[in-house]
Amino acid sequence: MPKNVLLTGASGVIGSALLGQLSHHHVTCLTHRRPVRGAAGGHPVVSVQGDTARPDFGLSPGAYRALAENTDVVVHCAGNTSFDAASETSHRVNADGARNMVRFARRSGAVLHHVSTAFVVRRAREREVAGESATTAHHYLDSKRAAEEALAEEGHTGTVLRPGIVIGHSVTGRISALQGLHSIMLATLQNTLPMAPVLPDHRVDFLPVDVVARAIRSIVDHGVDSGEHWLTAGDAALPAQRLIDLILEVARDHGLEPPRPRLVEPDVIDRLIRPVFLGQLPERDRGRFETMLGLTELFDTVECFPSTLGALPGIAQPTSDELADACRASVAYLIRIRRLDRRGAAA
Fold first, then answer.
1. What does pTM read for this prediction?
2. What pairs with residue 29 in β-bridges?
3. What pLDDT, on the 0 to 100 scale, is given for residue 254?
4. End-to-end distance of the chain based on CA atoms, in angstroms?
5. What is the C-alpha separation between 236 and 146, in angstroms, rounded?
6. What's the pLDDT score for residue 129?
7. Tell me, what's the pLDDT at 40?
8. For the chain, what percentages of helix, strand and coil (3-state, to nearest 5) are there?
């Protein structure tokens, strides 16, 4: 039975992949800037321009009422995922947005599926370098925790979905926008990552975007209306050393021979690398380096997340081998779109 689904963040990585999975429903996309065009299967996609961080999404009373009266299910994918965003910006977009979505769901009687992150349960290291705070993940994580707190304060009764890191399609590697893990892959391929502040046995929890989208589709289709759902690799998450091995393996298959990055204690970067070398980098490269540091802080443990993928109808828990294949596909996709392939040159 088709449902009336309101999707936020339809232009984002998860939202754009999910849109293709909801072709059997009537989908309305709440967009902040650009409208979403086209059709999802046999149903045209309707776009409504609004801002989730504003009361009533910034819509007129009539438009807000009409939207509420025609919504059965809300999938809230919109949010600020940047480590670089100021704390007040992340908080406004993520926490205020979550609060407004709960109020909308209560007004419409719709089930709200709030897409959070698995990393809310981890604490980024607080780092002070030369009297200035270095870039870490804590602003981002604090804003996502604040969003979940806002849900609780507003009496949220729907679901909270907690994906790990998202990479490209499990077969093609394709993704609508490159993510943080892609920056590590690219830096390894281009020999701009001589060392990484993560230990070899620390787990890197990622899932292909199509697996995440299918899991959310299953939740919508089967009327799941409550609970926390961990869309993660779980015990199948690959160790950091295995991830590096896979990147180098695909690199060699494409005629590249980047050296192996050293995996070191995070403190080594702050004590030795940053004071001597970081100031010599161009500002853009410095920012990328800091962002990668913030990302690797999320891997600072050998413990795995829980995973509830296998409990969802029609969704199997990926194996480590399947995740390795998906990683290969993402690295090959990155080599292709950045035109790094050197096999012809070698021949």
1. 0.90
2. 7, 47
3. 96
4. 56
5. 29
6. 43
7. 52
8. 45, 15, 35
